[in-house]
Amino acid sequence: MTNSTSASNERPLDMIIFGGGGDLAARKLLPALYMAHTHCNLPADTRILAIGRRDWTREDYLKNFMEEQSRSFIDAKAFDAQSWDKFLALFDYVRVDIENPGDFQRLAQAVRPNSQRVLYLSTSPELFVTICENLDAAGILDATSRVVLEKPLGHDLASARAINDAVGKHFKEEQIYRIDHYLGKETVQNLMVLRFGNAIFGPLWQAPYIKSVQITVSETVGVGSRAGFYDHTGALRDMVQNHLMQLLCIVAMEPPVSLDPDAVRDEKLKVLKSLRPMSVADIARDTVRGQYTAGAVGGEAVKGYLEEANVPPDSRAETFVALRAHINNWRWANVPFFLRTGKRMQNRRSEIVIDFADLPFSIIPDGPRHYGNRLTITLQPEESIQLQMMAKEPGSGMHMQPVTLNLDFQQAMKQRRAEAYERLLIDVIRGRLTHFMRRDELEAAWAWVEPILNGWKELGDRPRGYTAGTFGPAASSALMARENQAWAEEA
Ligand code: BG6
Q: What protein family does this chain belong to (predicted)?
């Protein structure tokens, strides 16, 4: 297959991937670029420079890394040997020790004089500053270069600011693409269309017509081989500070004036700034931390977190978080937002559940007033929207029962769904910033999350154990029950 050049990208593209021999490159970035290549979404004159520390030749990289590691992550149905060969031809490998400025000269030789440069930093964030300094010193950057920063961007507010300040010395804000791959998911983008492409939701999308919002991202996977990273990160930093808070923003934001990057990001920022700060007493009452213990997931016995490789025996890292958040603004006054995420849970599911208000008064004698309408937006594994309505039970008499309107997007729209990374990489190549985080957004999210981390330290208690394969600690259900609510699977 041949590639086409998008009108906005006449210049040759040099995509430079730091961490080119790393786990993310193998599992996500290279398969995403392969799919973009196969579907003719890379500019015609594209080159991909993989940067790594190993003393490899180009051929070593293609064989040891691309063939033997990355290729297996491409969907077998989408794989085409001819297209793969053409894809491999786009690659070069440059060995660079990031700490050694001299090595960047080798990279400077490898980029083409007039190319549009996209620098993807898929390394530990502690290296971002050195990479940017050395790139600049080697004359590789110009005013049109773009840099993609992988999460986690910092460990707390101060470290996030330090990274932003340092990167900001070499790139202007509009050159910086802070990636949160949830924003690249088709279903998450669809959430914006659901809200702002359907007039019927507008009047109801606020207090007092909405009683509560639940956002759940549950995973069945454990920490796997990532304990070194995960154990000093934990679920709050790994999932809540970015993915769940971004989902919350899209559910809660005011309609932006357009889809322009700043129009959307201004509205998300307002949500983040309106989050009610939590005191230590709030944290003790409104947050639940958990850590999985041995159990079974999908019928298979699995270890507890503390038994996983490279986890310290006394680790306090949380693998589960549930919390109740409030947004202090007119639209959402007194509407609780329940956020929950965890590893080794019963199923893999990301969903947003909107519970609408109770009937003000029921004329149907045996109809409980709180048998409410519920909108369930499932983001993964399947992509669907369900609306629970009340209907009359067939037969004589007026009895009601809940029934569900079910919209299955796979059935309704058969087009190919690109993976999040593919969509976001194409956005970077085309210079579209809407689905990336702006500096002030990232820092506002940290400003809300950091007191929770500090509060947990001050409270000094351990995360509560939950058996792998369940929905988390009992305290998570109690958090809901206190307000006469229940998580979707318990209702
Ligand atoms: C990543 C986290 O950002 O998202 C992982 O670091 C997590 O811990 C992953 O497993 C979940 O992403 P997805 O797309 O599988 O829901």
A: Belongs to the glucose-6-phosphate dehydrogenase family.
Indicate the helix (H) or strand (E) that contains 191.
helix 186-196
Read off the pLDDT of residues 66-80 as tens digits, 9 standing for 90 and up.
999 999 999 999 999
Other C-beta atoms within 10 Å of 405: how many?
10
Dump strand ranges (E) for 418-474. 464-467
pLDDT number for residue 3: 41
- Is the CB of 186 inside a 6 Å radius of any atom of ligand 1? no
Architecture category of domain 13-178 in CATH: 3-Layer(aba) Sandwich (3.40)
Helix or strand (DSSP H, E) at 50: strand 46-52
Q: Is the dihedral of CA 52, 53, 58, 63 positive or negative?
A: negative
What pLDDT is recorded for position 359? 86
d(CA 478, CA 78): 45
Question: Cα of 110 to ligand 1 centre, how many Å?
Answer: 33
The amino acid occupying position 213 is V
C-beta 422 within 6 A of ligand 1 = no
Query: Residue 120: what are its φ and ψ, rounded to 5°?
Result: -100, 115
Dihedral Cα 92, 96, 102, 108, nearest 10 deg: 30
Binding-site annotation: residue ranges for NADP(+): 53, 97-98, 151
Going by the annotation, the residues of the binding site are 53, 97-98, 151, 181, 185, 219, 238, 343
Return left, alpha or beta for 252; rule: phi > 0 is left, psi -120 to 50 is alpha, else beta: alpha
Q: How many whole angstroms separate alpha carbon 377 and alpha carbon 353? A: 6
The residue assigned the tokens 């290549």 is 37
Per-residue model confidence (pLDDT) at position 98: 96
Does 183-420+437-490 carry CATH code 3.40.50.10860?
no
Measured CA to CA, the distance from residue 69 to residue 134 in angstroms comes to 29
CA distances to 131, 148, 323, 447, 456 from 442, rounded to whole Å, are 21, 14, 20, 9, 21
Going from the Cα of 168 to the center of ligand 1, the distance in angstroms, rounded, reads 27
Look at the chain and count its residues.
Answer: 491
Q: Tell me the residue type at 92.
A: D
CB 358 within 8 A of CB 346: no
- What are the residue boundaries of the structural domains of the chain, listed by start? 13-178, 183-420+437-490
- Strand locations in 317-419, DSSP E? 320-325, 337-342, 349-356, 374-380, 384-392, 400-408
- Is 219 close to ligand 1, i.e. is its CB under 6 Å away? yes
The answer to whether residues 113 and 14 touch, using CB atoms and an 8 Å cutoff, is: no
Euclidean distance between CA atoms 267 and 257, whole angstroms: 9
All residue ranges of the chain with pLDDT < 70 are 1-9, 366-371
- Please check whether residue 182 is in contact with residue 242, taking contact to mean a CB–CB distance below 8 angstroms: yes
Which residue from 225, 226, 238 has its CB within 8 A of the most atoms of ligand 1, so it is best to mutate?
238
Q: Are 283 and 196 in contact (CB under 8 A)?
A: no
